[in-house]
Sequence to fold (421 residues):
Amino acid sequence: MLFESFLVAQSTLLWAVFGVAFVLGAVVNKTNFCTMGAVSDMVNMDDYSRFRSWLLAIAVAVIGMLILESSGMVNADGSFPPYRGSQLVWAENLLGGFLFGIGMTLASGCGNKTLIRIGGGNIKSIIVFLIIAVIAYFMTTPFPGSDQTLFSILFYDWIRPLAVSLDTRQDLGSIINSENPVTTRLIVGGIIALLMLVYIFRAKAFRTNPEHWLAGIVVGLAVLAGWYLSSSVMVDMVEEGEQYTLVEYYENWDMISDSEEGKPAQGATLSPQSFTFINPIGQTAGYVASGLQSTLLTFGIMSVFGVILGSFVWSLVSKSFRIEWFFNVKDFVTHVIGAVLMGFGGVLAMGCTIGQGITGFSTLAVGSMIAFTAIIFGSALTMKTQYYQMLYEDASFFAALITALVELRLLPASMRKLEAL
Fold:
């Protein structure tokens, strides 16, 4: 898609992203697509239907990205965030994903679900949103009058040295065959997607439930739409005979633009990208705090607004809109702790259940797969621990935790502290 001016090109991108996010919010609300819910169904009811829906979204995104990249329509190598960066921050992916998994369980949903619940009238989720926003913002933005962020103060000195510098990018195609990563990604990604599809459609309960189909396909296609839009919107400099992507135009702004008017505050946010929600929630905080400066508008901010509005409209259409508040002080404290963990964990992991679990996974990045696994583990462990704390009110947290680890087959059965009822 070619445009004669940067402002028109950027505006088209932002509104297109808003439109896709609107549809995403409405469909996710309608189908109750929820990654935390998927883990809960697996752990508590041995029901894998919603997990299969999540995997279907991943499979659709992986297949779509293989097609888009092999045809030259998308290049995720320079994405924002840098999923395929040559520095594998595995410890951040692992710890961040684990914290995020715990947090989303305590706060009743991941970043995307928080936005969906806000659109449906849940005031608890507004509190969760605000806490995530502040933490995510200061994890990446220096405090006023300082060059220090929450990340640099709390994490950088001890966790960043654990990162592994690779000789290639960290996607499976580059790691396996750095000389021909595109073809290798087609083969490896194709095998992964095929195995997922076989597992997904092997279950009759899933095959016969159209809502699970709809959720997985729409979420996967939304991620693909984000990748395509952020990669294909370009500025056509007719007089120079040159075409620039938005990030290339930004990098060459002083040479090709007549004024600073309309120049975005950051160039990285113009790179190829797709849906993720924790960092964008932080960006939204900065945008509001700035007095709604248009130069701070990003793909992420528009996606946040779009999902909330899409969910809100569907809740009105379906007459499911209702105001919800905390049950008691304990419920409030639990959600606050969950929000704090999501804010820290989502930025550390470089994404959430959508951002790493689907968008990042679609690039076949190793870091995304680590974060995806850690999120599931963190959530499952928290649910199992909560379950035994509920069954045995007098039991210690340690006993419930050890028993949960035994249930997840991470410790031998002989270490079990509490019996299932």
